[in-house]
Amino acid sequence: MTTLITGGAGYIGSITARAIRASGRAVVVLDTLENGHRKAVGDAPFVQADVADADAVRRTVEEHGVDEVVHFAAYKAVGESMENPGKYFANNVTGSQKLFEVLHTCGVERVVFSSTAAVYGTPSRVPVRETDAANCESVYAETKLMIEKTLGWYSRTTGMRSVCLRYFNAAGASDDATLGEDWRFSQNLVPHVMKAVLGRSPALKVFGNDWPTPDGTGVRDYIHVEDLATAHVAALDHLSSGGASVTCNVGTGQGTSVLEVIAATERIAGRKVPHEIVGRRAGDVSEVFADASLIRGLFGWEPRRHLDDIISSAYAWHSANPDGHPS
Ligand SMILES: NC(=O)c1ccc[n+]([C@@H]2O[C@H](COP(=O)([O-])OP(=O)(O)OC[C@H]3O[C@@H](n4cnc5c(N)ncnc54)[C@H](O)[C@@H]3O)[C@@H](O)[C@H]2O)c1
């Protein structure tokens, strides 16, 4: 069994590629390296190409005997997507559509797709369920919903089956701290906390301590990237055993506040995280966490790591790679 991993030189893709190999599959990674790192691919077969390059994708599928795909390749910066929507529609939506069409014509019928909890926008309730309305508040989120819908139509009209995984807040580094997030490309809280604690940035800004949450700061669902990786393996297993197309939340089901992330970091690093409370940021919401019962029930998947594992792996990774990326 060979799995094509698009975007497998990036943060989540590189760590998931290892988990997929550990499950007994062969892999081939396809990535432009625009936001990824060749080093993160290790000794896995690698093709430097764009998912929109139909010839390169077809060649890769044929030469490696690809049976299934995990599709990570995308741009992910929410702010940039609002400033330059065309860049996001072209790369994320058009690129994915071209990829799916080549897969379809080559007879590759199983796809796991990186979607996002951002499709829910400001949720009307927490925990958020898959059946709750999508309400995209950014071009980025809209591109992901459009790709989900595209896969939905391929499922209805062809033999293609897919699992769309709506990640909550991916965080942490690989358990051995050799792969992790590049903080130059990340808008996420944990890399910002790491920059602050390692003296690589001015004080961390905490946007509001007057939210209706237990300590007043924003609450999110942080999912360890290694647990996210095993969710992809479970999704591939589901499809290869004949499972139907489905869209699942991937989160822990537990909310963690910004101050709890800071406190865990200070405990694990043994140093203070310089931070200041500033006003709420436009567009933020108080609390978002997943109802993860669908993926638990359907795939038997369980997150095994906790906030301290996220922080200790991220701290080890960023301490060893102080420029924020693999050196
Ligand atoms: N990081 C998160 O918290 C998070 C949350 C929800 C969803 N996601 C989604 O998960 C996926 C992976 O996220 P990540 O954090 O690992 O991002 P990342 O930027 O580290 O990885 C994406 C990789 O895709 C590559 N790429 C981009 N466009 C490409 C194209 N057209 N062809 C080939 N390669 C291309 C980049 O070079 C990069 O290596 C993305 O689709 C992202 O939208 C991430």
Write a structural description:
This protein is an alpha/beta fold and 327 residues long. It has 2 domains: 2-171 and 222-250, NAD(P)-binding Rossmann-like Domain (Rossmann fold), CATH 3.40.50; 189-220 and 254-320, UDP-galactose 4-epimerase, domain 1 (Alpha-Beta Complex). Helices cover 39% and strands 17% of the residues. The chain is built from 10 helices and 13 strands. The chain has helices spanning 11-22, 54-64, 78-83, 85-106, 139-157, 189-197, 225-240, 258-269, 293-299, 307-320; strands at 2-6, 26-31, 46-48, 68-71, 110-116, 161-167, 169-171, 204-207, 219-220, 222-224, 246-250, 256-257, 275-278. Strands 3-2-1-4-5-6-11 form a 7-stranded parallel sheet, sandwiched between helices. Strands 7-10 form a two-stranded parallel sheet. Strand 1, helix 1 (11-22) and strand 2 (26-31) form a beta-alpha-beta unit. The radius of gyration is 19 Å and the shape is globular. The relative contact order is 0.15. The model has no long low-confidence stretch (mean pLDDT 97). Bound molecules: nicotinamide-adenine-dinucleotide.
